[in-house]
Amino acid sequence: MLNLIYQSLLTIDLRDKSIQPLLAGGLPTVRRDDSLSYFTFKLRPQAKWDNGTAVTASDVAFSLKLLHSPLLDNERWRAQFNFIKDIIIQPGDSASFTLVCRGYTPEMRLMTGDFFVLPAHRFDPKGLLSNIPFHTIRQKFDSLASTSTFKTYAAFLNQPQFARDTAWVRGSGPYKLKSWRNGQTVVLDKKQGWWGDQVAKEAEILRATPGKIVFQIIPDNAAAIMALKAGQLDLLDDMPLVAFQEMKKNEKYQNKFTFSSPSSFDLVFLGMNGDKPYLQDKHTRQAISHIFNVPQIINSLQGGYATPSVGLVHPEEKQYYNKGLSPVTYDLKKASQLLGQAGWVKTSEGWHKTIANQRQKLELEVIHRAGNSDFEHLAILLKQNAQAIGVPVTIQALESSQIRERLDTKQFDLFFRTLSGNPFSYNLIPLLHTSNKVEGGSNVTGFGTPETDQLLENIASEEGTEQKAVLLKKLQQEMQEQSNWVFLYFLQNKIAVSKRIDAAVVSSLKPGYDLTKFTFKK
């Protein structure tokens, strides 16, 4: 919905995964200078807010200030765009500006334009932030939190009206918020005389066809399937497996819907805490990786709608995927042998090993998000297979906040999780670099060596496809060797689209479809 109401400088065309200018008139020009890089944009002259005023570089600067201001719920975005150090607005040209960035990675060509641009006149009508430079907010974040200016501004911006009030939720995008009925529907209407309609003939990415889009909020899967079957929905994604399979085979529904199962970049994996003394030896972690029967899991839990992988790279990314690497196989005998190699000795009481002059028994806890049935089944299978080789496993279902706290403080053994990625960014430093093994850092599994750190840094900065492929394949090999991560599969989305819709754009990229390109058949 945010993508339909607001806009970013750049976007991705879901049809071919190409980077396209949206609010920007073209892709940025790039200049690199030692430790800094400079991305220069020029906004489309036609881009307008609802009040008829132009979208300007000052709006871009304001939006960056919001991403980094204290006392707002912006931690995720602040971290994601931390590489942007400053913005320079060209004198005498309100449409041109340059983003000053720390370092350089090829992914910045998209990321520098991948944040929502918000109208300063609406979100800061009193101009509280207008005279505070962006770089000042970056440098003095902590001290600014105690100032009256930012306390006043946070109190203003945190009002509910900015999220749901139809008079306030207005952007540069093709749609406006018509209504929001809690727990029922959200309705978006196409704007009359929207500026993008003038440009869409030359810039297809700006074409927005539907006159109205209604999102129905149906918290119960069974009720959602009933609504779909009754023709009350034109699209339903992330369908329950059984319903998807049954409807896809039913001739009645074959005539009403088109069923698609595009790959996604959502990776299901098991993480292991390699900093725990009893999990520090890689052979112990390798042993655990051999107790998963991945093909069987995909068939039983996902009905075949998943793609096994040897690493973080999706197998469809053929130039980067290490097809020469053999998947880890289900082999309980091999798992026991690896435990022996790690120094564990099996007795009638289980596996034991002397660690730091103390006798340690190998027993593990796996945590997962409560309410996720797939994780529940995976945890049960892990427990059963581990028990078969004499390793007791306890299962703990927790809320997301509890899991985050356990991961941040390294108070865990094993965890199941889904990592949402994309094919545009292979800057894996936050997830895997040893500098991020600190408490609260993203490298919670303890993966990494000085050699893999250098590998990650080279991957992040490499522009050449061939050399990046060599580096990524080497990383996949190293990760399988270290086994802090056990890669299970990439999920496939399960989508039904009414055959009333013509030329539906379905994609492996989130959200999985492009509503703006949907048209009804004549």
Walkthrough of the structure:
- With 522 residues, the protein is an alpha+beta fold.
- Helices cover 32% and strands 23% of the residues.
- It has 21 helices and 25 strands.
- The strands form eight sheets. It has a six-stranded mixed beta sheet. A four-stranded antiparallel beta sheet has the order 4-5-7-6. A three-stranded antiparallel beta sheet has the order 9-10-11, with no helix packed on it.
- α14 runs antiparallel to α16 and α20 (450-461) packs antiparallel against α21.
- The chain starts with a helix and ends with a strand.
- The model has no long low-confidence stretch (mean pLDDT 95).
Write out key terms for the chains shown:
globular, 21 helices, 23% strand, alpha+beta, six-stranded mixed beta sheet
Strand order of the largest sheet: 15-22-14-21-19-20
Report mean pLDDT, rounded to a whole number: 95
Report the portion of residues in β strands. 15-25%
* Structural class designation: alpha+beta
Q: What is the strand and helix layout of this fold?
A:
Elements: H1 2-5, E1 7-8, E2 10-13, E3 18-21, E4 29-33, E5 36-42, H2 57-68, H3 75-80, E6 84-89, E7 96-102, H4 108-111, E8 116-117, H5 120-123, H6 134-139, H7 141-144, H8 148-157, H9 161-164, E9 175-181, E10 185-190, H10 196-199, E11 212-216, H11 221-229, E12 235-236, H12 241-249, H13 251-254, E13 257-260, E14 263-272, H14 282-289, H15 294-302, E15 306-308, H16 332-341, E16 345-347, E17 350-355, E18 358-361, E19 364-369, H17 373-388, E20 393-398, H18 400-408, E21 414-420, H19 429-432, H20 450-461, H21 465-482, E22 485-492, E23 495-498, E24 501-502, E25 519-520
Parallel strand pairs: 19-20, 19-21
Antiparallel strand pairs: 1-8, 2-3, 4-5, 5-7, 6-7, 9-10, 10-11, 12-23, 13-23, 14-21, 14-22, 15-22, 16-17, 17-18, 24-25
Helix pairs in contact: 14-16, 20-21
